[in-house]
Design brief:
This protein has a domain of 81 residues: His-Me finger endonuclease fold (3-Layer(aba) Sandwich), CATH 3.40.1800. 45% of the residues lie in helices and 8% in strands. The longest helix is centred in the first third of the chain and has 29 residues. The protein is extended and about 75 Å long.
């Protein structure tokens, strides 16, 4: 049986902090440019943002490639947190539908398969 070791919390904290710094550095460049290029309005729901609430406005990459950041902003759209989450959920839902259609993840359980016969049974 494998021996369990305690996680190195200091190392984990360093890795998480480094990942956040890298993300912030990457986002900082295109986010600042996007906020200069576009009006501070969600491209989906039309809500306007300013002041402290501006942090709720995110940059969405239309092609989902965070490294594709053309200077003219043609791969970006500003979306509020909710619309951005919804956009990514739609992509995940579509991918799941495609897997099901291709036969990779088809459900095998049929919860109502015997329902008709159960309804026809007479109580004792």
């Amino acid at each position: 049986m494998p021996k369990h070791t305690t996680p190195d919390h200091a190392r984990l904290d360093r890795v998480v902090a480094e990942a956040r710094q890298q993300r912030e550095a990457r986002e900082g460049g295109y986010r600042e440019r996007a906020l200069k290029l576009f009006p501070w309005i969600c491209g989906r729901c039309g809500r306007e943002f300013s002041g402290v609430r501006l942090r709720e406005l995110t940059v969405h990459h239309k092609d989902h490639n965070h490294d594709n950041n053309p200077p003219d902003g043609s791969n970006w759209e500003l979306l509020c947190l909710y619309c951005h989450d919804n956009e990514h959920a739609r992509v995940l839902d579509e991918a799941a539908r495609n897997r099901t259609a291709e036969g990779h993840a088809v459900a095998t359980h049929h919860p109502f398969a015997n329902l008709q016969s159960l309804l026809k049974k007479k109580p004792d």
